[in-house]
Amino acid sequence: MRVFLKVAETHHFSHAAEQLNLSPSMVTRYVGDLETRLGVKLLQRSTRKTVLTEVGMRYAESCRTLLANLDEIESRATQESARIAGHLHIVALASITSPELAGLFAEYQSRHPDVSLHITQTESEVDLLGGGFDVGILADTMITSLSLVSRTLAHAPLVAVASPGYLMQARTPTRPTDLARHRIVGLATGARSYRWMDKHNKVDTIQLDTPITVNNAVMQRQLALAGSGIALLPEYLVANDLRIGTLMRVLGEYRIANDGVTISLVYPGREFLPGKVRAFVDLACARFKLPLISAPRAVGMKDVSLA
């Protein structure tokens, strides 16, 4: 269509070919294919000049209108992609109550007041695209799609905790094997066999019986606070409880070597991100000291506390 209009404008196939950086034979072919598809004669050719037929004149006018509208549509799409405005749908791990995360959301909205933030918290698996989310801050085990970009924000080790009331009734464990005689509040998706490593790097592998299991870490923490037993929880989730004494850490001389929670920033693809998503990802990377998405290689920073 654009080739046809250029011939109509210059009145010469050769001139049109020169301006379009095409060969004259290619221009002739394009116009011929167009006339064949339409079943009409659009141009009258002579040795000196090429002119539009009556049908060609009407068709050319319609083409100009159509292409002008198309250019405007494409321009709007480009501007919309770069514009930082609209609605940003974020899904986040519900057990993250970190001031750092709240600060990220607050700073983003302060910088980009034309964006409305819609934040959903969950402990379940997430289909980012199917759920209509633009970006997620999730545990790796919650991410169901393999087509997303995933960048590690933090890795939180598990710690064993219990309420002072529970520990008054039950003898405080001094080594991992003592857990066999304790009530364990477990996570339904968590491991059942844990490798405990002492300060000398000696490892004890313990199979835990969990008479109480829940499907999210928030309820697991609540049950530990209520004295239901010993819970293995991400350190960031119980940091404040340990500080004020509502929970106490047990087996503090050991660390769990085979489990923990890796929290990642996830979003769909690196290319053609809407401006609102790119701005959020860049801000999150800056706050968690990760390379920006324009960097050639993304390397996450692990073992960063979210508390």
Write a structural description.
- The protein is α/β, with parallel strands linked by helices and 307 residues long.
- The protein has nine helices and 14 strands.
- Helix 1 crosses helix 4 and helix 2 crosses helix 3.
- The C terminus is likely disordered.
Topology:
Blueprint (H helix, E strand, L loop, with lengths): L1 H9 L2 H8 L3 H15 L4 E3 L4 E3 L1 H29 L3 E8 L5 H13 L3 E8 L12 E5 L9 E14 L1 H6 L14 E4 L5 E5 L5 E5 L4 E3 L2 H9 L4 E5 H10 L3 E3 L4 E2 L3 E8 L7 H13 L20
Parallel strand pairs: 3-4, 3-5, 7-10, 7-11
Antiparallel strand pairs: 1-2, 5-14, 6-11, 6-12, 6-14, 8-9, 8-13
Helix pairs in contact: 1-2, 1-4, 2-3
Properties at a glance:
alpha/beta, 3-stranded antiparallel β-sheet, 14 strands, 36% helix, 25% strand, rod-shaped
Quick description:
The chain has nine helices and 14 strands.
The protein's oligomeric status is single chain
In whole angstroms, the N-to-C terminal distance is 60 Å
Tally the helices: 9
Low-confidence stretches: 291-307
Radius of gyration: 32 Å
Find the structural class using helix and strand composition. alpha/beta
- Number of strand elements: 14
